[in-house]
Amino acid sequence: MSAPSRKSAVRILVALAAPLAILMAGGCGTAINHNYDPSTNFGPLRNYAWAPGSPVYSQNSLVEANVQAFADPLLAKKGFMKTTANPDLVISVRLENYPYGSAESYELRMLGLNVYRTDGQTLIWRGTASGSISTDAVSGELDSAVQAILAAFPPK
User: Fold this and answer.
1) Could you tell me the residue ranges of all domains in the chain?
2) pLDDT reported for residue 156
3) Please, are residues 115 and 121 in contact by the beta-carbon 8 Å criterion?
4) Which CATH number fits domain 31-150: 3.40.50.300, 3.30.160.670, 3.90.1150.10, 1.10.10.10?
5) Quick one: pLDDT at residue 74?
6) Strands laid side by side in the 89-97 sheet
7) Is residue 129 within 8 Å of residue 149, measured between CB atoms?
């Protein structure tokens, strides 16, 4: 095989290998699930508030604050407005940690966003990301998980 033909073959292999590697890595990644109450009309529900989180000195409080910071602009792009007075919806953050980890950086095995009516009792939408989600700021995994969860909210 001549040098130009070899270079072309290498380029083709690289072009084919990159998407394959992404697909394979994605298969080992985070699973996203959604569920909702089909009788709920999400159309007029436009204001939301965050449910109170974990205690202030919990290591989860920082993760919850980051989840909210990632979610707020995504929700705003979808026409939702964060409010403290008379929200239409209340959103809670649910975290499940692996048994190991530290306050500086650890991994979640599940991140959930639960959307309730303002009574705080009636769950109308739930999105979860499960797998191994790094909460380290540099990894970007937490932001990606929040984006993936909210991609299907509100349901169409």
Assistant:
1) 31-150
2) 84
3) no
4) 3.30.160.670
5) 98
6) 31-36, 123-134, 107-117, 89-97, 47-50, 81-82
7) yes
- Region 137-148: what's the mean pLDDT? 93
Predicted pLDDT of residue 1: 58
What is the reported pTM? Answer: 0.76
Cα dihedral 63, 147, 141, 73 sign: negative
Kindly report the backbone phi and psi dihedral angles of residue 86, in degrees, each rounded to the nearest multiple of 5, phi listed first: 55, 55
User: What does the alpha-carbon distance between residue 145 and residue 151 come to, in Å, rounded to a whole number?
Assistant: 10
Q: Which residues have a Cβ under 8 Å from the Cβ of 130 and sit 6 or more positions away?
A: 30, 31, 33, 109, 110, 111
Task: Give 3's pLDDT tier (boundaries 50, 70, 90).
Answer: low
Say how far apart CA 85 and CA 80 lie, in whole Å. 14
